[in-house]
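Components:
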Amino acid sequence: MQKEKNCIVLNKVNKFFGEKQVLKDIDLTVPYGSIYGLLGPSGCGKTTTVKIMAGISESSSGDTFVLGEKMPQLALMNQIGYMAQSDALYTAISAAENLEFFAALYGMSKQEIKKRSMEVMELVNLGEDLQKPVSAYSGGMKRRLSLAMSILHNPKVLILDEPTVGIDPLLRKDIWNELYKMSENGVTILVTTHVMDEAEKCHQLAMMRRGVLIAQGTPRELQQNIGAGSIEEAFIYYGGDSHED
Ligand SMILES: Nc1ncnc2c1ncn2[C@@H]1O[C@H](COP(=O)(O)OP(=O)(O)OP(=O)(O)O)[C@@H](O)[C@H]1O
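Structure:
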């Protein structure tokens, strides 16, 4: 069964906002332990798709399974890490307090919270800024803190909506190395991106356009299928490079 081999399965998922259909019959499978990229022009439905996967939003019809369970599923929430496009941070308090707050929601112990907070903050190069109020963070620092928060509880599934926007290339490389390590340890990672060199780093890619999944495969397959010289060329061929809105 698809559900057993794959960590994330979407079967004929549709989503309407009022009269407007923003997802059309999305069929998608993400194998366990893979890094799967969702690529497409602005407004094509990437965020809507990942919110359904994360259990934050419900589809209008169709089924979504994560770790073999039908979504949305409250009991799965502490096995999923989700990083939204806009940072969900409390700016009046410190990064440490933000981490503590979320960790407590996940039921982590005080000792665990302290150890893990330091670990994740060092990972995103914010080890020195743990006690600073978030209001004093730059945009890029807030993104990195959001990423740290999404992996704080060692989730089995990590869903990242444009995680490296505003992050410099060097740190972006470090973050990708960390994502590879996590995937080698069995974590399944779903990442949305506009950045072509990031798309190439994914094990598998899905390209979306106007709510439809138009192509799926490895970055190499997507290029070879149409004789494209780069993933950027494939993206332009499959999806067009113009914005939808
Ligand atoms: N709550 C909402 N109510 C009405 N329309 C919505 C809502 N959320 C999203 N949409 C619409 O659904 C479509 C898909 O939006 P979505 O945010 O999923 O796109 P996206 O591919 O993630 O875009 P971007 O790359 O710019 O973030 C857009 O046309 C958007 O305007």
